[in-house]
Protein 1
Amino acid sequence: MVQTIPSGCVHLVFHRGENLNIQSKGLQPKNFIRGQFSTYGSLISEGNIDMIAVIFHPLGLNPFVRCAMSELYNHFSAEKVVRVSYVKNTRTFYLF
């Protein structure tokens, strides 16, 4: 078990191996955006862990998503990863 601390940053996570289990919230989705957290957490790994994580500076994800950061506060969302709009040239990139 690994203890996490709230960082104030948004994470974009892609699990390539087994998903991690968050002790109070259950199994993480395969790919997700994790908002800012205000509490500590406990991660439990089961099996082979292989992941890619992008950690954005505060407000660093804003140019890429069309939702308020308050929608991601204290939870993670797999739905927001499916379609990410890039505002500068109005193209849409699909991550899956």
Note: Strands lie at 2-4, 11-15, 21-22, 26-27, 31-34, 41-44, 51-55, 76-77, 83-86, 91-94.
Protein 2
Amino acid sequence: MYNDASNESGIFVRMGDKINPYGSWYTKVSKNSEVQARIDLAIKKWWVDSNGEIKIRGFEADKSILDTMYYIEFPESIPKYKGPVGYQGGPFLGGLDQEQYFIPNSWKYGEIIETYPVK
């Protein structure tokens, strides 16, 4: 269950590709590696459809690239929702102790503070 977190502000962390700094899902705790992020935040390497088949866009599979860490500051009073990371099967554990934030249209509100490549 997700709860309103619009009263929270500060630095939020996102791991993604080097081309798209903003996304919808963030955390307040950075991860030390791509592997740790995939396990703790339940981020699969490939996007799949409701049948569990890998999504294809054009001639390529829709891959979830985690090569850059972003620290982005968000103010209070913008839409934010907080809740646990759901288990996604296999090693993509998530869990009640792993909190994530859903920030719709985050590119409208955030300011990139720092970025660096993921090891």
Note: The chain has one domain: 4-117.
Protein 3
Amino acid sequence: LCLCGIVGNLLNIVILTHHGFAKTTNILLTSLSVSDLVFSFTQSMGRLWSVVDRFDRNLASTINSVYVVYIRAWNQAALMVTIYQVMVIALERLLAVCVPLQVSRIVTPLRMKSLIASVYLVLTALVVPCHLMYSIEWVSHRNNVTVAIFHPTQFYIDNSVAINFYVAAVLSNVRSSVPLTTVSVCSLVILIRLSTSSKHLDRMSSSSRHVSRRIREVKSVRMLLAVCFVPLVFVLLPTTTFEAFISFSPETDQLSCRFKIVVMYVSNLLYQVSSSSNFVIYVTMNAKFAKTYRELFRWNRKLSKP
């Protein structure tokens, strides 16, 4: 799945970049592909140790320690950036269906780029405490093998109560509850307006140029709604449910470590499914994207021929 996410999002970036950035939608989808690519890559680094562990346990321990100390916080930042960009897509589409005549004046390419840059900066800054929680210590094992072991930093030990509260209460709600509510409400309103528009178009003549343009707009909205729906189902709902259960269950202290690990693995699997799905959505629901992909594939095949 991580490999599919890396390859799929690389293709997304190539094709969307080829289409240019005149439209705010292209800017958003390209940026979304970048954050999904970073998430998929860092996620693969997080699972690399389990593969290496079958051959070399010491090396696997070192890889896992390096991931926990240096990479895991970036993985969480990429996930949050992806979630909030989906929220931006939902809000932008809500404006498009509610005030279609004013949306091009409100949402300009420059404003969209500024908003996306702000999302990256703010959410990356929010995970800074996670970078300060662990450090690496190199220890010598049997047979003169040096292994990296991660352990809590003195900063984390001194401020563990505050940092744990920040991660469990603040960061988790920023990652789950806020975007879940926003994306759900926006998607519901968009779905209602989309249903109304589709019924209205069915009663009109399809030969009209205006109707043809409206049909293309409806198809575009459907695709973006699918882009919002997948993270809503595979990321926001399970994340919020799992975190609420673990946080508010009366038997929280008695929950086994194994159960929490299973929840974490299931969550990571769902996150990766979401990050890997956009390429399929674009190819199946956007004729222009699919056409560019076929042309790119055909061009590569011609180059490979002697």
Note: The chain has a mean pLDDT of 81.
Protein 4
Amino acid sequence: MSRIKIGLSLLALVLLWVGNMTYYQRHQLDEPLFMKHYYNIVTLGNQLNFELYYLVNQREDVGIYRLHLPDSEIDLYPTWEHDNNHSQYHKLKNARFEWDEVALESLKDDMQIREIEVEFTNGSRKLVDIGEILIRKTNEDPAYIHSQSSGSSSDNTGFSHYRQKEELKFIGLKHLPPQLDAKYLSFQVNGQHVEVASPSHNLDFKPYLEVKYAFHFPQDDPRAQNIYSSMSELEVQTPDGQIKEGLMFINYTPNWSTADIRAILRERRAK
């Protein structure tokens, strides 16, 4: 092979390598990118926790060291953090934060969190818009009826099953995930569709009550890429007219595809 052909072959390889590197760099994040979280949660005795999801570059070894809640003295540290190899460019991470006794004592009233100061394991810090987390503070267990079983599935549905000896009347649900229109979340009580915004429902139950929920998002709706979770309160009426409550967990976590991640990145970079 002549020197010219060898030179042209090497040049082609260099140009291909440069092109691949340029394409790869175009997909890299300048900093970790956090998903939007919309939680409505409550303290249960001395327990309170939540999870955060975020994207980092595939080859980047970085995690969350600490969270600081602005305008408070509360610092939170992850109890665990998981990596999910999502694509050749990015990996999705989720970290769980459990409030310790000091943090719970610092929580004087109900709290709304929209921004969190994140300190990463590489020493960098960032003020992050995480969506909206509503925390309701209580020192008592508000449950009058207790769920016997509950669960959720990957088709964005879930249920809670309650068993009770006395005849109760279902009234409604409150403290649903924030920033979520009612048309995106539907409910059935013992197989019958109900509007939770209605003041009352003539649905007596004995000996059981089953509440099902389902999330519905139009195709390509950006809300479908958010995480929703709530510790909602189920309201019932006793035979003597008292309004009592029980706890119901509602959860939605997207199954992000590579296309979903690309759409999220396009949307964030366009802002």
Note: Confidence is low (pLDDT under 50) at residues 15-24.
